[in-house]
Amino acid sequence: MDTIGARFTRPEPRRRVRDFVAGLLAPLPAKNCWTIAEHAGDDGPGGMQDLIGRASWDDTLVRADVRDFVTAHLGHPDAILVVDETGDLKKGTRTVGVQRQYSGTAGKIENCQLAVHLSYASPLGHTLVDVALYLPRSWAEDPGRRAEAGVPETVTFATKPQLARRLIDTALAGGLPCRWVAGDEAYGGDPHLAAALRGRRLGYVLAVACSHHVPTGLGKHRADQIAAGLPKHAWQRISAGDGAKGHRYYDWAFITLPLAADQHAGHHWLLIRRTRSTGELAFYRCWSPQPVPLQQLVTVAGSRWRVEESFQAAKTGLGLDQHQHRRWRAWHRWTTLVIAAHAFLAAAATVSTTNAEDMIAITANELRRLFHALIIEPARRIADLIAWSIFRRRHQATARTSHYARQALTEP
């Protein structure tokens, strides 16, 4: 709150933001304005709903403050920006950005909402730092749907790689220190994003499809054709990072691509990963302003899993996908406060250290449980719980009376 509080000019919204984030950190069975208001001891959900939907504050500036907070607590010159998308399954067609589209989260085409997230991974920790909601063309070109969902006039259709580029540009302009960018095939297959990163002198390890064509001394060849022709000694067993059950070992090979040179100079490689148990292959286009060893490229490729860990923590523990808001501004505000809560946990976890050999370092999820049990929960009042029980029953009685009255108009 010392970081973002100045964005809220009055004490009431400052208090509500504090209570809202505390509610996100709490182990509530479901997170929405009703449950968070009850947890905060408010006399109803109206204040929290007003904070998310109507109060005067700029979520873009709050995310900028969160980025500064991350820079101060997790910043490192060798850090990695990871771009990835996540989908939230939704019903109906009125929630902003929702349509039937492929969701990597579900692994198939679903009625869902997609957002491109920017994650920051450094030797000190990792966290979400920024987000851009993907607005499909069917939404971007429909004035009626845009108006109903409150989409600003300045927002136009942009592909996911274009959204990722904007997020990266914003992070760099804000002074977030980093050296690398990592992403999956949705971003590695876009040559404009790769060229923009080279122009920024940012190294990258971006996944590409097996059909991706690579320039070699004998012309352009598919990535899987190049892998098939590699000799046995070209492969090296290297860990892509520590996992919960041990090192994540794969076989790796990389091929220098001198014919891929462009006006940005630097060094190009094709990196190939082979799963040791199944032989499944994955391919990456890599670039760096300076020569780097294979181990460095493998480390960057393995860091992409950090964003999946952040998604899991933000969804299961902080309610990232539990919002019940249909409009553009409310969606961004909810997501921004979830990002702020996640950044707080990531930074606080770096402060907690242990020298015990029989314990791992504290995780963000464990810290969230302790913070709630030791800090938030003792401050709550029993009277608040009773007051909300009365409020809920009165609200339900009013709703029931309205339903019966409406039915009496049409039924004998």
Automatic annotation (TrEMBL):
Superkingdom of origin organism: Bacteria
InterPro entries per record: IS701-like, IS701-like_DDE_dom, RNaseH-like_sf
Residues of the Transposase IS701-like DDE domain: 7-212
SUPFAM superfamilies to which the protein is assigned, alphabetical: Ribonuclease H-like
A Pfam family that the UniProt record links to this protein: DDE_5
Protein's name in the database: IS701 family transposase
